[in-house]
Amino acid sequence: MRPPVTHHHPAQGAARRPSRILIVEDEKRLALSLAKGLTAEGYAVDVVHDGREGLHRAGEGTYDLVLLDIMLPGLNGYRVCAALRAAGHDVPILMLTAKDGEYDEAEGLDTGADDYLTKPFSYVVLVARVKALLRRRAQGAGASPVHVLGDLKVDTAARRVFLGEGEVTLTAKEFAVLEQLVVRAGQVVSKAEILEHVWDFAYAGDPNIVEVYVSALRRKLRAGLIETVRGAGYRLEGGR
């Protein structure tokens, strides 16, 4: 018998369907607090406290966003995230964890998470990240998911990249940076724009992190594919 799911629904009256958020968090007080806050923001929120149940619920495909703790009973957050991505689910995933450090963040993002927040975190920052991820998802909903530039093909729905006859494996952040460039192919995209859309405005680290990921993309794809426009940003060139 499956454990019950705690449902939190916003007040009725809104004409538009509220975004549905699944919270997978075993700290029950924190989960309840987040659920109450996000419900007050107008979201429909469900809460589960176990990794296996979280994977089952998220796999139903009815959620617009998943808040996923890493240290969970049943299955940890890394394994839940990896399983969802392997099954083809592209729901935005914001990982929550008490861990800290670049290795943990890299592991979380490499399993397919879209963003990462370390406890304790500001609730204001959490809401900002949630809104940014939902906005990014909505902006991509009406666009063609497959972009072809010469021998480069980027499928933003399946999150897969092909160069020539082969598939190129990218981390979640590498793909997110490439996506910003490919949807505006031929145009200059500034470092600030990439930071805002990929890391969001709450990012307080080194802005040169963009250069690191662009360099990684050049190594994995082709050196001349992404052009640096001095003082302006980057431009993805296709057709070569």
Automatic annotation (TrEMBL):
Keywords in alphabetical order: DNA-binding, Phosphoprotein
Superkingdom of the source species: Bacteria
4-aspartylphosphate modified-residue sites: D69
Start and end residues of each Response regulatory domain: 20-134
DNA-binding region extent: 144-238
Membrane-spanning residues: none
Pfam families given in the database record: Response_reg (PF00072), Trans_reg_C (PF00486)
Residue ranges of domain OmpR/PhoB-type in the record: 144-238
Gene3D superfamilies: 3.40.50.2300, 6.10.250.690, Winged helix-like DNA-binding domain superfamily/Winged helix DNA-binding domain
The protein, known as: Response regulator transcription factor
Organism of provenance: Streptomyces lancefieldiae
